[in-house]
Amino acid sequence: MKLIVGLGNPGIEYEKTRHNAGFLLIDRLCEKIGLKLDKSKCKALYGIYRHNGEKIIIAKPQTYMNLSGQAVVSLMHFYDIDVNDLIVVHDDLDLPVGKLRLRAQGSSGGQKGMGNIIDLLGTSKIDRMRIGISNDKKIDTKDYVLSSFSKEEFKILDEVFEKGADALIYAFDHDYDLVMSKYNG
């Protein structure tokens, strides 16, 4: 069993914001595989996709970003999922818009949701997919991550979300090292 989690903030007012890049990629993944996130438990909205006899849980925490770990850990405990079977998708200020970076471990890089997950799980050895949202140093970080993408940025992100969804589908059957070697770049 695997757990794929996209990070973001719940609510219509945050729907198209930079901080919700993880949610947006999960939405694309669900479109591609025909899955509805129709279950609500463990502070998350999620669905269960069956692939070659294996359950793959795809989720969007319904806590605010900085408490994402509560939903992730709850789902992991409820479904008895090992940290090695977890992939977290989140935004990254240090990457330009249009850049997708896959990593098998590392610090949170200042991303509060990822930091909360690392703290609650007690490990930074977590597979993750980071989506570049750029950074405007002239705007307070909190305001910037809660701002919307421009139309031009959404055009770029469309390709990123497609590539990211394909990488996650590839991860259904492959070790994350193989996923990283195929989709990083």
Keywords:
185 residues, Rossmann fold, 7 strands, 37% helix, alpha/beta, 7-stranded mixed beta sheet
Write up this protein.
With 185 residues, the protein is α/β, with parallel strands linked by helices. It has six helices and seven strands. It has one domain: Rossmann fold, CATH 3.40.50. Helix content is 37%, strand content 22%. It has a seven-stranded mixed sheet, sandwiched between helices. α1 packs across α5, α2 crosses α3 and α5 runs antiparallel to α6. The longest helix is centred in the last third of the chain and has 21 residues. The protein is globular. The model has no long low-confidence stretch (mean pLDDT 95).
- Given this structure, which CATH class is correct? Alpha Beta
CATH superfamily: Peptidyl-tRNA hydrolase
CATH architecture: 3-Layer(aba) Sandwich
Q: pLDDT average, as an integer?
A: 95
Helix amount, in percent?
25-40%
Head-to-tail CA distance between termini: 28 Å
Low-confidence stretches: none
How many domain modules? 1
Element order: H for helix, E for strand: EHEEEHEEHEHHH
Radius of gyration: 15 Å
Could you say which structural class the secondary elements and strand pairing correspond to?
Answer: alpha/beta
Number of helices: 6
**What is the total tally of β strands?**
7
